[in-house]
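Handoff note, outgoing to incoming analyst
You'll be picking up this chain. Sequence as last confirmed:
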Amino acid sequence: MLKLIRSEKNAAFFIILAAVIGLLLANTLEGFSERVEPLHHYSELALALFFFVIGLELKSELTHGVFVKRKALFVPGFAAVFGALIPAALYFLVTSSDPVANNGWAIPMATDITFALAVFAIFGSRMPSGSKQFLLAFAILDDLLAILVIAVFLGSDVTTALLVTGSAIVGLLVPSKFTDRLQNSLTPLIHLVVLPLYAFVSLAIHLDTTIVAALTSLVGIGVLLRVLGKSVGITLGAYIGSKFTKDVLPISVYARLSVLGGIGFTVAFFVNDIVFGEYPIYHTQAIVASIAAAIFSVALASVTLRRKAK
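Most recent structure output, in case you need it:
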């Protein structure tokens, strides 16, 4: 995946463009959301390729990448776990008075690999060696945790559970000699078709609420807190993980990289569809707050990543 880092900026551009077009059309053309709705099922099925590549990425890193030395799992592993648990806990606490809103606790858990790497490619040129590897590692493990949560805890239907879990497991089972070739073949399709299509369909919704109302709702506040929760969780996890291995970066580097964890897109929207698919207001609030959290995280990253390392 690191060989493809140059393409992440282009991938992020296409995803954002598709999302913006979907949102604009849904709010300017009457009945557009209803006409697009049948595509939602097919866009979710297409995500199987995305989860399959996550499995390939993990297999690749385990066999000839950053996880060849198993001790290398400690720092990104703890960062991923705490970076998922703390935002979920903050969301759960904020929404505890609303049983329906409370079901969205998994929305702030996952980091969007594509966007995180894209932002790093733009602003991270001054970051020390090893920063990319850490970012990629915790983002992969982060998404793996989200996949497990979707399959085990969210009460998703059989099709969805098989989609997310089965695809990732199949990727992990692919012989290592084929993983890089498959990644190189599938990544352009995912970046240019699968993720833009999913972004287009997911954001093709008519906004029945104002942005302010969405961001000040319980769901909105809970999702926005992912920026704080991710930063604290990833930094704390990396600090704990560093106690088990000597090959570590300064804790300040992990803290600066942690702001990228606030960018949630594909997996966050997927979880949102599962838990709030039958609750349009909550669904919209989560989407608006996820976009706002991502924008805020990118703004923070543009400052923290461009600082010269001491």
